[in-house]
Design a protein that fits this description.
elongated; 4-stranded parallel sheet; 434 Repressor (Amino-terminal Domain); alpha/beta; 6-stranded parallel sheet; Rossmann fold; 348 residues
Length: 348
């Protein structure tokens, strides 16, 4: 390699044909490495002119054994459940979890990554949706690439197209498609979608899934059928208000998240409509609280805690020096009391 700055511990391990963990132990002088393996690692390091990075040394020495978890909204139960999964794995590795909220602000997300780099966090997990923004993608890669070259670990939850990071990917698109198909089988033919901004990859994937599921049933979802607001409870309430003001005749409202669905149900009830007798409402995620609503919410269930646990397991996995591994976790359609067969004269 002509540029010494880009020689990493991964390069040394690959050249020596040993695991990343063995290369690290050999270079740190531990006695738990066979002599022949140590010689191979030291020879590879000399051949590549490898110089241990101060960041990597701090990580190996355990001086800052922390994991940074970056999410959009720490008050959102979706992120709370994912973080519980992260914390369970972190505890088993003796790691401290630092949680940062970005309020879905791309610049704040970049600032959080920069701060965690400065803190020499052992790993950084991006658990919120990525942004459909090429400039943001380039800036995020510019933050994460030197962090990884210095020994930091990165994993993401949901689709982050350009980061080439280890990913735990819930099947947002497939789950939304399955929910739309289930509502069609229930007898619905007039649909509205309530969703957050489609610059978020999670939102874009779920709306695409709704469109695909309805298209398979011969139903086209027009722009007049999609009501967009902030990706939270108040956003759901506002979008449902717009739906009512437009006198939309949907018999079923497909909602891109459970928290948005809470706002939708509140707005419909305030307008004197019954769920599901007048309008069926679906959610997405299966947050624990939606099971106790009256009626309980039909939704696409995702294994939220498992998403967080597997993301950190990927980040900490010493068995592979590769990046870009993807673990896909399916969703499951759960039909509860918020959906029913449509009556002949429904309106929303």
């Amino acid at each position: 390699m002509s540029d010494r700055q880009h020689v990493t511990l991964e390069d040394v391990a690959r050249t020596a044909e040993v695991s990343l963990a063995t290369a690290s132990r050999a270079l740190n002088g531990t006695t738990r490495v066979r002599d022949d393996l140590r010689e191979r690692v030291l020879s590879a390091a000399a051949e590549l002119a490898y110089t241990p990075n101060a960041h990597a040394q701090a990580l190996a020495g355990g001086s800052r054994r922390t994991v940074g978890v970056i999410c959009h909204d720490i008050s959102d139960p979706y992120f709370a459940a994912i973080t519980r999964g992260v914390m369970r794995v972190a505890d088993s590795h003796g790691l401290l979890v630092m949680l940062a909220g970005t309020f879905a602000d791309p610049d704040r997300e970049l600032a959080c990554v920069s701060a965690l780099r400065a803190q020499r966090a052992t790993a950084i997990l991006l658990t919120g949706s990525a942004f459909e923004d090429r400039a943001w993608e380039r800036r995020m890669a510019a933050e994460l690439d030197p962090y990884r070259r210095g020994g930091g670990r990165v994993a993401v939850v949901t689709r982050h197209r350009s980061l080439k990071a280890d990913t735990v990917a819930p099947d947002n698109r497939g789950g939304a498609r399955a929910m739309a198909e289930a509502m069609h089988r229930l007898g619905h033919r007039r649909f509205a979608v309530v969703t957050g901004p489609e610059r978020l990859t999670t939102v874009a994937d779920r709306v695409t899934g709704f469109r695909e599921g309805l298209a398979a049933a011969g139903i086209e979802l027009s722009e007049r059928d999609v009501f967009t607001s902030s990706f939270d409870r108040d956003g759901g309430y506002a979008a449902a208000g717009a739906l009512l003001a437009a006198r939309h005749r949907a018999t079923c409202v497909l909602t891109a998240s459970d928290v948005m669905a809470l706002g939708v149900v509140s707005a419909l009830r305030e307008a004197g409509l019954s769920v599901p007798d007048d309008v069926s409402v679906t959610g997405f995620d299966d947050l624990p609280l939606v099971r106790d609503l009256a009626p309980p919410l039909s939704t696409v269930a995702l294994p939220l805690e498992r998403l967080g646990a597997e993301a950190l397991e990927l980040a900490l996995d010493p068995g592979s020096a590769s990046r870009g591994r993807v673990r896909r976790l399916p969703g499951e359609v759960l039909l509860r009391g918020s959906t029913a067969r449509p009556r002949r004269r429904r309106r929303a």
